[in-house]
Amino acid sequence: MDEARVAALLAGVAILSSCDSTQPDRQAKLVAIGERVFLKETFNGNGRTCATCHPPGNNFTIDAAFIATLPRDDALFVAEFNPHLRKNFEKPELMRKFGLILENQDGFDDLANNFNLRGVPHTLALRTSIDSDDGPRTGWSGDGAPGDESLRSFAVGAVIQHFPKTLNRVVGMDFRLPTDAELDALEAFQLSLGRQDDLTLPLPLTGVVPARGQEIFLDDTLGKCNLCHVNAGANAAVGGSNVGNANFNTGVEDLPDQPADLTGAFVPPDDGLGTPGDGTFNTPPLVEAADSGPFFHNNSIQTIEGSVAFYNGDAFNNSPSGRFLASIDPNEIGIKLDATQVVAVAAFLRVINALENIRQSIAFLDQSMGKRHFTKKSRKELIELAVKEIKDTIRVLEGGSLHPEADPHLKEAKKLAKRAAHSLFGRRKMTKEAIRELKRARDLMVENS
């Protein structure tokens, strides 16, 4: 299934599942326009689109494994075949090995020396994750958009940074800027993706390890995770009040043996928010984390277990954020979890990610049986998209050896959905059976669902 279809269906499901029949069609049309711009519009630039780095078929992010599947002439690799962009536009080796994209966060005056290398954050659940008391937070450092720093303006900065034909970056020659109408549509499309609301924790989890992980996550004296990731989202509660998405210096830049550094390549330190930067980075949501790694702004850690374990180390506990947590702890401890507790928190994050994947799968399958909005072809593609989400669920759970009792139901749902996608007369029956299997799997992971 091509990327255009994937994103169109994602947007369609988000709209139809979150809005009642009285909502004007105007919003749905705006999202559809935004989907087309996101996927197809090159803005007269070097061939890239928004989906080049945020492909819908890979959870709207990229990683080394996904990059390895792309053809050599993919626009992601434009620095390898456009002579005008061969130097100081990307670092192709580090992109291919670690999924790192070059950003001139502090301006274009010294391209050879003044740059950052960052991973690609997914664009799911943006509706719940970019607002703060200090204004919108976009990009890894919270200032990814020029001007008003809004999601609407994010595309302007992206086009200037990633879409030019040459490093002169002259408007009208190297690219065109998005129109106001395109910016409105892009914002609407991106806000339609993924969860429209945060979870309400605690969940009645059935697995003893993920349930213990949830307890640790919510314990402000032990895991302390919920202080910065309220309800496993992207918003922080500092001093007892929710301040929205916030920036923190957690010491990620101080980690030794970072993968990109090990290559011997020149990788300048990333100073985070502002110019010059203050060393802080904004908080991503965690519900989608387990299947959208690598982790942190520089893709320095590959696994969800490793990312949880980071907070036990010296880099975090010696950072401003670590020292702050120690200052409010009676025992003057930042975060100190034993190995089994790290695994438990990671198991909790894997399970909530799997539950979100199941929710999406059921939504896609439900929509595939609808009589409005979808052609026969798009019904098939919706089912195929549900299959992808089921595969993600299986992969996330197997990665932590979690809920093996749910595995047969997930695999049966996948098999039924695959058959439904290619069935002429039995599609509806098999789709309903696939939904029942998904619900059985879900009910083995969380009670009263």
Q: Indicate the percent of residues in helices.
A: 40-55%
Low-confidence stretches: 4-9, 11-22
User: What's the Cα radius of gyration?
Assistant: 22 Å
- Assign an overall shape: globular
Share in β-strands: under 5%
Beta-strand segment tally: 6
Count of separate DSSP helical elements: 17
Question: Which descriptors apply to this entry?
Answer:
Cytochrome Bc1 Complex, Chain D, domain 2, mainly alpha, 449 residues, 43% helix, two-stranded antiparallel ribbon, globular
Annotate the secondary structure layout.
Elements: H1 3-18, H2 25-40, H3 50-53, H4 64-67, H5 78-81, H6 92-98, E1 101-103, E2 116-118, H7 151-162, H8 180-191, H9 208-218, E3 235-238, E4 241-245, E5 247-248, H10 259-262, E6 281-282, H11 304-309, H12 314-317, H13 320-327, H14 339-368, H15 376-399, H16 407-421, H17 427-443
Antiparallel strand pairs: 1-2, 3-4, 5-6
